[in-house]
Amino acid sequence: MGIFHLFSHKAQRAAMKREDFAKLPRHVAIIMDGNGRWAKKHKLNVAMGHRQGVETLREVIRHTDDLKIEALSIYAFSTENWKRSPEEVGALMQLILEFFASEIDELDEKNVRILILGDKSALPDKQREVLIEAERRTGDNTGLRLNIALNYGGRAELVRAAQLLAEEVKAGELEAADITEQMISDRLYTAGQPDVDLMIRTSGEMRLSNFLLYQCAYAEFLFPTVLWPDFSVADYDEALKAYGGRERRFGKRL
Length: 254
Known about the structure:
13% strand, disordered N terminus
């Protein structure tokens, strides 16, 4: 029996189907928080917490695809995460290689399209090559859009969009006064995708941590207290059900 099974406390309830929900979000974003605390709780090193978190991620991706949700964005590694210990950063970089080696065939077979959000140029060569190949291989797929944020920061993404627009203004292709919200959206990493409908952050922390700042303008937020490695498909279904009970007014009165 593997280490991941030894520490499995997840609810074993059958996963819900699309028809079981009153409504579903088009775009779910998840901040996968609590890996380090999970490891500490089980007296393991933090790398084992991240490994167990990858097991959770596999289940969540599969269920999201089964429910035919359009887009799933996950916060895997922020621009601030480089400040963590070299051992933890190294473990996270290794997990990138292992995840794609083990999952790319299934993701491609299921018609999932992978998009990396963030600056790939600052990543180690092996990791950058794997990510570029995953985007290339799945680039024509038309199913779930799986957005993986790596070396990502929401403010940096907005700066990048502003720079792209500024270059067009400088080249005489655009007037500054004509810049619209849609033009900004079209220059974000998530261009062409719906804005985030539901943002989930596990472990009970209640902050965005610089994730998809623009795209979450009208998102619904849920902060389950369960640590990410223990977040089950049943927990995910509960979050999706809670979303279905929300009234979304977008500034209007109903």
